[in-house]
Amino acid sequence: MKVFSRCVALMALLLFSLVLIGVHSQEEEEEEVQEVQVEEVPQEEVQPEEQEEEEEEVVLETWTGMGKACTCDCEGGDSATGTPTMTTSLLATPPPQSRPLDCMPECPYHQPLGFEAGSVTSDQISCSNQEEYTGWYSSWTPNRARLNNQGFGCAWLSKFQDNNQWIQIDLQEVGVVSGILTQGRCDADEWLTKYSIQYRSDQNLNWVYYKDQTGNNRVFYGNSDRSSSVQNLLRPPIVARYIKLLPLGWHTRIALRMELLMCMNKCTSALL
């Protein structure tokens, strides 16, 4: 009987040990499953981020491959009317033909070329029929077409009043022109009401009209009195050495005081 009792006790202990081992193994398996699930969750969350990064890389490659991206380095200034130091060499090599800067739809900084300040010389400004400016007209030559000019001979007066007249500016080197300011005659009610612009980078090339978004020659609207200045920005700016303003409409007489605005950014990859 004692032997039998001991056997029963040993069997009970053995069964109990097996139950404990089974429970412990089951708990370990459940912990392993939970760890695997925890490790898999970040993988599912990371995949969309990796896809977004890959998409961004594709977009970037597509943009830079379009040939319209350009590196623009602003030389200073904090407003459209500021006057930061102007870059003296905008272009290392002049383009074969003038054209708008497609990569820069609007120039953020502008500086006057120097009509009003006097840095634009009389040799840089010419007009139609200039050889006929004698007598009274000798006081109203294109050199007088300077913004805010005052006194007798304060503006350029065209000797003829028709659509064949023009005034031309030679920048002396290819530059980025971003706008134009116009005024009427200081001592009489005479001014331009509308005009168009032509440009070219070399005197041996044909003149090119500045176009609007529809591809037509853009008409710029000018003044409505003798003293106010009207600003027209060029969006996009143009690369040129020679600028020609052609009167299309006027009040009483073709009379003009003006200033050109130069873009303060340099763009190196869109000049073709």
Write the layout of secondary structure elements.
Elements: H1 2-65, E1 99-100, E2 110-112, E3 125-127, E4 156-157, E5 167-183, E6 191-200, E7 208-209, E8 220-221, E9 230-251, E10 255-263
Antiparallel strand pairs: 1-9, 2-10, 3-5, 4-10, 5-9, 5-10, 6-7, 6-8, 6-9
**What's the helix-strand series?**
HEEEEEEEEEE
Distance between the amino and carboxyl termini: 112 Å
CATH topological fold name of the largest domain = Jelly Rolls
Largest sheet: 10 strands, antiparallel
Rounded to the nearest angstrom, the radius of gyration is 38 Å
- The CATH architecture category of the largest domain equals Sandwich
Oligomeric state as shown: single chain
Gross morphology is: rod-shaped
Strand percentage lies at 25-35%
Kindly name the structural category.
alpha+beta
- Determine the CATH superfamily of the largest domain: Galactose-binding domain-like
Residue-averaged pLDDT:
76
State the total count of DSSP E strands.
10
Number of domains: 2
Membrane topology: Peripheral membrane protein
Organism: Esox lucius
Region (Disordered): 34-55
Keywords: Cell adhesion, Disulfide bond, Membrane, Secreted, Signal
